[in-house]
Specification:
Radius of gyration: 22 Å
Shape: extended
Mean pLDDT: 81
Distance between the termini: 40 Å
Number of strands: 0
Largest sheet: none
Order of helices and strands: HHHHHHHHH
């Protein structure tokens, strides 16, 4: 598509990905129900089954009305105040480590996958295109591991697997410079580990 309407092929990749994302989001708004009782594509019996499952999962949790008193109670909770410095100030070592870990994974995957692929010998267009499959695998892993963890009611093992995949993937992507295939496989593992819902 290089040259179509005066745009280079790399621009068309962004245009087409953006259009697809926007169309799926707009379609989802109209077709995905907000609550089981709003779903028109399942029977009344199935709705009651889903609602019973949600009630069972919620346990004793209730949905209270949002009042000023409820909002202010958050500010009176000592646990909130203990965690506040870890997320908002860079003065403690723990805060720095949390931000470093989250930021490293997030930004290295979001911004540098095409650069890593370019350094592996791919053209600019192929680097952009080949940056899509690791994200897709991350989504599949995220949904699949969340489903299995919920099914077995056990999250710890899945969290450890995700962390191990993330570390292994970053090591492969960072140090397997002479093996482009291993580097690309590392990107898959890193994305799958980071996209984990835990």
């Amino acid at each position: 598509m290089d040259g179509v309407n005066g745009y280079h092929s790399w621009r068309w990749i962004f245009i087409l990905e953006g259009i697809l994302t926007a169309v799926i989001a707009m379609t989802g708004y109209f077709f995905i129900p907000g609550f089981p009782e709003d779903a028109t594509f399942i029977s009344e019996e199935d709705k009651q089954y889903v609602l019973a499952g949600l009630k069972k999962d919620a346990g004793g949790a209730t949905s209270d009305a949002l009042t000023l008193q409820a909002v202010l109670s958050v500010f009176r909770d000592w646990q909130i105040w203990c965690m506040y410095p870890y997320y908002h100030f860079d003065s403690s070592e723990c805060s720095s480590m949390i931000l470093l870990g989250v930021g490293t994974c997030l930004y290295s995957l979001a911004f540098f996958i095409p650069t890593i692929l370019l350094e592996s010998g791919y053209t600019a267009v192929k680097a952009q295109l080949y940056s899509i499959p690791p994200g897709v695998c991350g989504i599949v892993w995220s949904v699949g591991s969340a489903f299995l963890a919920d099914h077995f009611n056990h999250r710890f093992t899945f969290a450890i697997i995700a962390i191990t995949m993330d570390i292994t993937g970053f090591v492969m992507a960072g140090w397997a410079i002479s093996a482009p295939g291993a580097r690309y496989a590392g990107l898959f593992l890193a994305y799958m580990g980071f996209a984990s819902p835990f």
